[in-house]
Specification:
Distance between the termini: 35 Å
Strand content: under 5%
Order of helices and strands: HHHHHHHHHHHHHHHHH
Radius of gyration: 19 Å
Helix content: 55-70%
Largest sheet: none
Structural class: mainly alpha
Number of domains: 1
Number of strands: 0
Shape: globular
């Protein structure tokens, strides 16, 4: 039985994760990776997120990222490692995280006691994470913790993101949702990415989206209008609850007061970043 309020871990994750994810929408990432020869946006994303696992092949990336078309992955991996080593990519990624956070949050926030406090709390939460059956988390957990508080905070947010993400993939498999079905049903909740963003960034075609929608309708999960049915809503709710349960350990380790404070601090940073234009306005929906 958890000692935390219901969904406390999810709320904390939702406060921290977007500031990590903002890196992938940042021009700074393209600039830094372009500086080491990786100019293609898809190659940059695959390399920057997979580099912690080493010079892996396309199968590993497709498996651990889950919702990307394998054809798109194989177009860039492993060729990207011939352009820049995983170590060079990780160094460039951290430089991009630094410049992105400084631009979005401002130097006063970067140097604030609140940032240092948030870094300490987030890192303490990661002490409760576990490696088994969590490949992306485990790979990132082997990386050194940056010394500067804002980068330590970003690093901890990365660990917590991938810890939850690895668990979520297990939940998707248990729910028998393939990559496209997961994307379509998530968008139908109103919280996922807009279809055009998914098709452009994940390498799928409109026919793939339509076929997945038909399969979901056949299971009684989606209406003809593309909205979740009552059963579809229950499935997506159950997915998040299952993920919550498998991702509870870091937040239990931090404790109720720590989780509440980290959530408060994370929401404050996120609000500043959103006001600074951290994400495209048409990316969701």
């Amino acid at each position: 039985m958890s000692t935390l309020p219901p969904r406390a871990g999810r709320r904390c994750h939702n406060a921290l994760n977007p500031l990590h994810s903002a890196l992938y929408f940042s021009p700074d990432l393209g600039k830094e990776l372009g500086g080491i020869g990786i100019d293609d946006p898809s190659a940059a994303y695959f390399a920057s997120r997979a580099a912690a696992m080493g010079a892996v092949g396309p199968g590993t990336v497709t498996a651990t990222f889950y919702n990307f078309n394998h054809e798109l992955v194989a177009r860039h991996v492993p060729a990207v490692w011939d352009i820049a080593s995983p170590e060079a990519v990780l160094t460039a990624r951290l430089r991009a995280a630094d410049s992105t956070l400084r631009r979005l949050l401002g130097e006063e926030v970067i140097a604030s006691p609140e940032m240092a406090e948030a870094a300490r709390l987030a890192l303490r939460a990661t002490e409760g994470c576990t490696r088994h059956a969590r490949p992306l988390y485990a790979a990132h957990a082997d990386l050194p913790v940056p010394e500067q508080p804002h980068l330590a905070y970003w690093h901890a947010a990365t660990l917590l993101r991938e810890h939850r993400g690895d668990a979520h993939l297990a939940a998707l498999l248990a729910a028998s949702l393939d990559p496209m079905e997961a994307l379509v049903s998530h968008t139908a909740t109103g919280k996922g990415m807009a279809p055009r963003w998914i098709l452009a960034s994940r390498g799928w075609r409109r026919t793939d989206w339509e076929d997945a929608s038909a399969r979901l309708r056949g299971r009684g999960l989606l209406t003809a209008e593309g909205e979740l049915t009552e059963e579809g809503t229950a499935l997506r709710t159950g997915l998040e609850e299952t993920t919550d349960r498998m991702d509870l350990a870091p937040y239990e380790h931090l404790g109720g007061a720590g989780v509440a404070r980290l959530t408060e601090l994370g929401r404050g940073f996120l609000g500043i970043a959103l006001a600074a234009g951290a994400f495209p306005t048409d990316a969701t929906g």
